Amino acid sequence: MAQLRQEVDPGEVGLDEKVLDRLDQHLAHYVDEGRMPGFLVCVSRGGRVAHLTVHGRRDLAAGLPVETDTLWRIYSMTKPVTAVAALLLVEEGRLSLDDPVADHLPEFAEPRVYVDGAGDTLTTRPADGPIRIRHLMTHTAGLTFAFYHSHPVDALYREAGLDSSVLPGSTLAETVAVYAGLPLQFEPGTQWNYSVASNVLGRVIEIVSGTSLDAFFAERIFGPLGMTDAGFWVSEQQAHRLSELYGEKDDGTIEPVPGLPLKGRPRLLSGSGGLAASAHDVHRFAEMLRRRGELDGTRLLSAETVGLMTSNHLPGGADLRAFGTKPAHDEPGNDGLGFGLGVSVVIDPARTVAPAGLGTFGWSGAASTTFWVDPVRDLSVQFYTQVRPKTLKVFPDLKRLVHEAVVSQPRRPPGPPAA
User: Fold this and answer.
1) Beta-carbon neighbour count of residue 58 at 10 Å?
2) Rama region for 168: left / alpha / beta (φ>0; ψ in -120 to 50; rest)
3) Per-position DSSP letters for 154-190, written without gaps between them
4) How far is CA 140 from CA 109, 144, 185, 195, 270, in A?
5) Among 188, 203, 187, which residue's Cα sits nearest to residue 98?
6) Any bridge partners for residue 387, and if so which?
7) CA-CA distance, 150 to 350, in Å (whole number)?
8) CA 379 – CA 49 distance, rounded (Å)
9) CB–CB of 384/57 below 8 Å?
10) Residue 325 — very low, low, confident or very high, per pLDDT cuts 50/70/90?
11) E strands, 37-99, where?
């Protein structure tokens, strides 16, 4: 077990300690009002942790505090890890971004695209081209989520038993086969729709590597990066550090809700949202990306590959706003945000709702967790609580206050730049 620790005073790396104190006070109000059980926030500059605060409880009923080694369900923050795993195979020549998915998963050989209608009157046509690996990594494959309630195809996902994105009691292979039998919302590569695509990518990784997703992550990512707690389940020795999961009620208060069944190896290993991790683990992962694929002498990816991952791949160079919004993700608005290979990417800072430097990348999770790396300001930031939100929106003010704290360049050269 490794814990995150503050490594440097904020002023030494050009951060205003008073503004960071305001950040802590702002977040603490959510706890005091009963809207969050507790939180951890970490701000690093040049790779050194300059601000680390824990506050409140990881388990309200048990009275257990949030600690620096608390374990969190990171849900969709799993997706960038899955993308890195796939890129490892791309660099080895065992996978290509332009591979048709059907080359590895034959059940996707004849995709059909939605045309019109709903329910019994729904009509489809053969897709003009294949779903490719890059479409999975950029959420442009035409796949969707059952819980959107915004398109006739997501209704078919619900009819197929995919209300929670996966088929209850199934394996990853079985669930992905169900996805393959459903129509696409649009022609692959033409639009963006946040979806179950990372689960399909996870299954591709298993087929290409010849090993299970948990073993691949552990051997190729977690072990080399020293991510000592990250995984698809928690051991008996780790269990006492796992935060309780809460859901927001209509009145804004919270109550315990069911979460990922993390006690024991799950039958389905979700590349879309299955991981739990500590702040130390995600700090290591984010640092590897900030340093363009290398950390502490271990190179996971080439700088060129990380540059590709953190570039905008949306059709026509558009931002996410061009493709509408979905309620599944608590991004602070989609203006000025593009999408890379498993991460969002700021392509127009002037249009973003929250302050961000050009090229800032990261992603968030369904229980109100987030991380981002800002190469312009040389920042990496993490925030954790465990609340499935309805109206709770922490990220915009989090980003505003973090960026208000940047007052100068670090007093010594930072680590290798992210761009």
Assistant:
1) 26
2) beta
3) HHHHHHTT-TTSS-TT--HHHHHHHHHTS-BSS-TTS
4) 17, 10, 10, 9, 19
5) 188
6) 246
7) 30
8) 10
9) no
10) low
11) 38-45, 48-59, 64-65, 71-73
> Looking up tokens 């995709």, which residue turns up?
111
d(CA 70, CA 240): 9
Query: What does the alpha-carbon distance between residue 27 and residue 376 come to, in Å, rounded to a whole number?
Result: 25
Distance CA 35, CA 183 (A): 39
Q: How many whole angstroms from its chain centre is CA 147?
A: 18
Phi/psi zone of residue 209: left (φ > 0), alpha (ψ -120 to 50 degrees), beta?
A: alpha
| Tokens matching residue 250 | 């209509």
Query: Edge-to-edge strand order for the sheet containing 64-65?
Result: 64-65, 48-59, 38-45, 379-384, 369-374, 361-365, 344-346, 337-339
Q: What distance in Å separates the CA atoms of residue 98 and residue 239, rounded to the nearest whole number?
A: 41
Cβ atoms within 10 A of the Cβ of 393, count?
11
* Long-range contacts (CB closer than 8 Å, 24 or more residues apart) made by 85-88: 85/202, 85/205, 85/213, 85/216, 85/217, 85/220, 85/221, 85/271, 86/133, 86/137, 86/201, 86/204, 86/205, 86/341, 87/301, 87/305, 87/308, 87/309, 87/341, 88/220, 88/221, 88/300, 88/301
DSSP state of 297: T
- Residues 43-90: pLDDT tens digits? 999 999 999 999 999 999 999 999 999 999 999 999 999 999 999 999
pTM: 0.95
